[in-house]
Design a protein that fits this description.
The structure holds 2 protein chains of 2 kinds. Chain A is mainly α. Chain A folds into 2 domains: about 1-65, no CATH class; about 90-405, ABC transporter involved in vitamin B12 uptake, BtuC, CATH 1.10.3470. Chain A has 17 helices and 4 strands. In chain A, helix 5 packs across helix 16 and helix 6 runs parallel beside helix 8. Chain B has 2 domains: about 1-75 and about 170-250, 3-Layer(aba) Sandwich (Rossmann fold), CATH 3.40.50.300; about 90-165, no CATH class. Helix content of chain B is about 40%, strand content about 25%. Chain B contains 10 helices and 10 strands. The radius of gyration of chain B is 19 Å and the shape is globular. The interface of A and B includes residues 305 and 306 of A.
Chain lengths: ~425, ~250
């Protein structure tokens, strides 16, 4: 046992050396047209060696260390307590949620512009994650190209406004429906596939959309993106200092208040909030409807579901389409918030982050997904100083989560349908 | 009502089912028996659309159904259970029955979102039907439990109830007594007979348990190594020399 541990520890520390020394230790330096390789200075070498020693010690005494960690009190003391009655919990939950939404309505009037802006981004991610949650969490289809539908929504608005001058409010349903249509069209051929194969194909689809946007320069402007996307208006009132479009009035003049750039930010935030709440409520409702049950049934046992007359394609397609629909929503809001979009906003990393939110939050759990969306969006902002190590921290957090709470922050608690006693 | 004509199923070089024919009349319990690996479940899988048979015809109420997708066959009224219970184990017992009624429910998304009256009535009806069948198989007290937490015998009965809420005309049971104790087998016996008598459902049954087969079957088909060996009433089968040699003797 001890010898085995020792060998393992030695192996790990050597691997650490092999990996970290070339990455950190070597430097390529350009001198004129020549590139020279320079070795590390002494302090870096010491650091690498120190890291190897730490890895060695940790692996050698891993059992003891993990044992002590496990004997620490559980971070959530309530988790061992008896859960409260289902209907009481639901009641408290709905009150708390309503309270939070009401607070969120008034919150932007008291904080800085940057915070509101960030909160809008959080809300967009919440929408995306709730939509993906339908596909991955409820229907159990691993979709790695979800960002494609987000891009479809954003570009729909951008192109429609650029070429046809269509406003945000009209573009919102069009963008969502077009994204849903893309979901439907993509879903048809790929939903026969399962698991890994489905993941790969959706990944490919996401890339195709991005590359298409990048290369179809005559329509989309390619890597230059599309700018000048209009802000949403409130019943024909614009939030800019000067009215851009004939027939519109401006918000601050109508109400006789001084112009402030904050109005627009807050208004966008409120739109995003309303849409996010709408998304959450609609999906929550879906979960209790026959279609939601069909998603879960198909996820749990596809063969049994088919034997009961559920069409696999129809059920999966509905999940895919509905997920895409909400991504289109989020995309339209995103385009409006940024005012400028380019294919760079829709890289695979975005898909990965949204998927990470769903997995971190707990697949199928709406509250968990919302919490995870907040955490994943805000933490990198707080950790700006470590921006170079953002992905490292992100990865470490994922690993820790998987060890500590494999089912996610708030594992899904199914909304059961109760059979009432008929006396 | 069901007629299987010269059904063959070939997997590469293996001929798993070879020219099997059988028929089921209305109001009848027909069994398929045979030693392990005889191809009984393969016959079932062909009938329920999980496999596309490589030869032969399957007529259900005069319509050819061979090669149709499984969910369509199930919607015609041929519903099956599985050798190893396949429940939606994380869903509650009553939800299992609701899923089964999916196609009877109003699946229109909009009407469900705004809860139209017709949606509500249908939802209530399906709950009532679920409650009725739970009562029928004696699981009403466990309606709100997770299906995966039920005892094995209860899971078996739930699976049958789940088929029955789809209002099938023909019920296909794949070894329904597997893993049941004698008392449970007896209950199951009565349940199957009552399905035939009270609900006018025909039953096709695959079974190892000879006592179950002999007691309740109207007719029995014996398959051996993918080939039909004999068919007839339980009495005839009991006295058939081939069957005794191939099956009873071996078992």
């Amino acid at each position: 046992m001890a010898a085995n541990n020792f060998r393992h520890a030695l192996f790990c520390s050597i691997i650490t050396l092999i990996i970290s020394y070339p990455i950190i230790g070597f430097n390529l330096e350009a001198q004129g047209i020549n590139v020279t390789l320079t070795g590390a200075d002494a302090s870096t070498v010491v650091m690498v060696l120190l890291a190897a020693v730490i890895v060695f010690l940790f692996q050698l005494f891993r059992d003891q260390i993990m044992g002590t960690l496990r004997s620490l009190p559980h971070p959530l003391p309530q988790s061992s307590k008896e859960p409260m009655a289902e209907n009481r919990r639901a009641k408290i939950e709905s009150w708390v949620l309503t309270g939070i939404v009401v607070l969120a309505l008034f919150w932007p009037f008291f904080v800085s512009r940057g915070a509101v802006d960030l909160a809008t981004l959080v809300l967009i991610y919440i929408m995306l994650a709730l939509g993906l949650n339908v596909v991955v969490g409820l229907a159990g289809l691993l979709d790695l190209g979800y960002v494609a539908f987000y891009a479809v929504g954003a570009y729909t608005f951008a192109l429609l406004s650029q070429y046809l001058g269509i406003s945000f409010w009209l573009a919102l349903p069009i963008g969502a429906l077009l994204a849903a249509l893309f979901g439907l069209v993509l879903g048809f051929p790929v939903l026969r596939l399962r698991g890994d194969y489905l993941a790969i194909v959706t990944l490919g689809f996401g890339e195709i959309i991005r590359i298409l946007l990048n290369n179809w320069t005559t329509l989309t402007g390619g890597p230059n993106g599309i700018g000048g996307i209009p802000d949403p208006t409130l019943f024909g009132m614009e939030f800019g200092r000067r009215v851009k479009e004939e027939g519109n009035t401006s918000f601050h003049e109508t109400f006789g208040i001084a112009y402030s750039g904050e109005h627009k930010v807050i208004f966008l935030y409120l739109i995003a909030l309303v849409l996010a709440v709408f998304t959450a409520l609609v999906i929550r409702r879906f979960m209790r409807m026959p279609v939601g049950r069909a998603w879960e049934a198909l996820r749990e046992d596809e063969i049994a579901a088919r034997s009961l007359g559920l069409s696999r394609t129809a059920v999966k397609l509905s999940a895919f389409t509905i997920g895409a629909f909400f991504a289109g929503f989020a995309g339209t809001v995103f385009a409006s918030k940024q005012g400028f979009i380019s294919p760079e906003s829709f890289v695979f990393l975005e898909s990965a982050i949204i998927l990470a939110i769903v997995v971190l939050g707990g697949m199928g759990s709406q509250i968990g997904v919302v919490l995870a969306a907040i955490a994943v969006t805000i933490l990198p902002e707080l950790a700006r100083e470590f921006s170079e190590y953002r992905m490292l921290i992100f990865g470490a957090a994922m690993v820790l989560m998987m060890v500590w709470r494999p089912q996610g922050l708030m594992p899904m608690r199914r909304i059961h349908i109760e059979l009432k006693r008929q006396e | 009502m069901l007629e299987v004509q010269n059904l063959s199923m070939r997997f590469g070089g293996l001929l798993a089912v070879d020219e099997v024919s059988l028929d089921v009349q209305e109001h009848e319990i027909v069994s398929i028996i045979g030693p392990n690996g005889a191809g009984k479940t393969t016959v079932f899988n062909c009938m329920s659309g999980f496999y596309k048979p490589t030869g032969g015809k399957i007529l259900f109420e005069g319509r050819e159904v061979q090669g149709k997708p499984d969910y369509k066959i199930s919607r015609l009224g041929m519903v099956r259970t599985f050798q190893h219970v396949r429940l939606f184990s994380q869903m509650t017992v009553v939800e299992n029955l609701l899923v089964a009624q999916h196609r009877h429910l109003n699946t229109n998304l909009i009407s469900g979102l705004i809860k139209t009256p017709s949606y509500r009535t249908k939802e209530q009806k399906s709950l009532d039907r679920a409650a009725y069948w739970l009562d029928r198989v004696g699981l009403l007290d466990l309606a709100n439990r997770e299906a995966g937490n039920l005892a094995y015998g209860q899971q078996r009965r739930l699976e049958i109830a789940r088929c029955m809420v789809t209002e099938p005309k023909l019920l296909m049971l794949d070894e329904p007594a597997a893993g049941l104790n004698p008392a449970e087998t007896k209950e199951l016996n009565q349940l199957i007979i009552s399905l035939k008598e009270d609900y006018n459902v025909s039953v096709v049954l695959i079974e190892h348990d000879m006592s179950l087969v002999m007691d309740i079957s109207d007719r029995i088909n014996v398959i051996n190594q993918g080939r039909p060996l004999a068919s007839g009433t339980p009495e005839e089968i009991r006295q058939n020399d081939d069957v005794i040699k191939a099956y009873l003797g071996e078992a």
